[in-house]
Amino acid sequence: MTKGLQCAAINAKCRKDVSNVLDTVKKIFLPDNDRVLKPRTKMIIVGAPNVGKSTLINNFRSMALGIAGKAVPVGKIPGITKTTVSKYALYDPGQMIKVNQHPLVYMLDSPGILVPNITNMNIACKLLIVGCVKEGMIEPVIAAKQFIKLMNEARNEKYFKFIGLNAPVSEDEEHKFLRQICNHHKIFKSGGDYDFQRAFEFVLRRFRDGHFGRISLDEPHDLGCLKKELQMKRFMKSLTRRERKEVKDSRSSNEMEIQERVQNFLGRESINLDD
């Protein structure tokens, strides 16, 4: 918002939200005095995997043109949209899709985009839980530990009742949590061993479908943690290889001194953390 960008929180499946977004898009990109001069406008929709980009395009098309059916495929897992190809085949998956007639507007769907390497395991687990990262990318025991922590912080009671328990599970009891899912919902491998991967995927599907209620996985203090991490990354980039090694070796014992050096560096370089 500080850069003049407009944003809105929407549910891609809610017709009212979709209608408001379409009206806003037309006002931004197609002012009244430009609609005659620009007979056709093309846009691309970009975002993280599995957040509703294809659903949004389909609903734009359905509401503006009254066309039922899906112009682009959708699913509950990331990676459904894999390519963006020729603009000439208008209604094929991954192609330019007509979403409005007057004025004439086309949209191009695109594969989900994330940073190449997610080094923060807490963020990686959150992305897995909400479906932006495919199951199996993180070991179920590691992801389950973070899932339990988030559910307990939200004081959610539905998650442990769903697996047949009467009290919350400690985040250090991730193996107990996964075993309980397997036992309660009869999820085993062919030889009779526990299938932790399928068990955790089973719980995640229920979470994403709303069986555990409306829950935010981010807290206000998370932004401060992310800014602190960004500060450290920029500071480390400013050092020589030898200096970086010295900082890494002494970080655990001299945390206060290192943080002071980071703050001095930020003040000297006048870095804007909102960039």
UniProtKB/TrEMBL annotation:
GO CC terms, sorted: mitochondrion
Pfam family, one: MMR_HSR1
InterPro entries reported in the protein's UniProt record: GTP-bd, GTP-bd_ortho_bundle_sf, P-loop_NTPase
Superkingdom classification of source: Eukaryota
SUPFAM superfamilies, sorted: P-loop containing nucleoside triphosphate hydrolases
An example molecular function term from Gene Ontology annotations: GTP binding
Protein name: G domain-containing protein
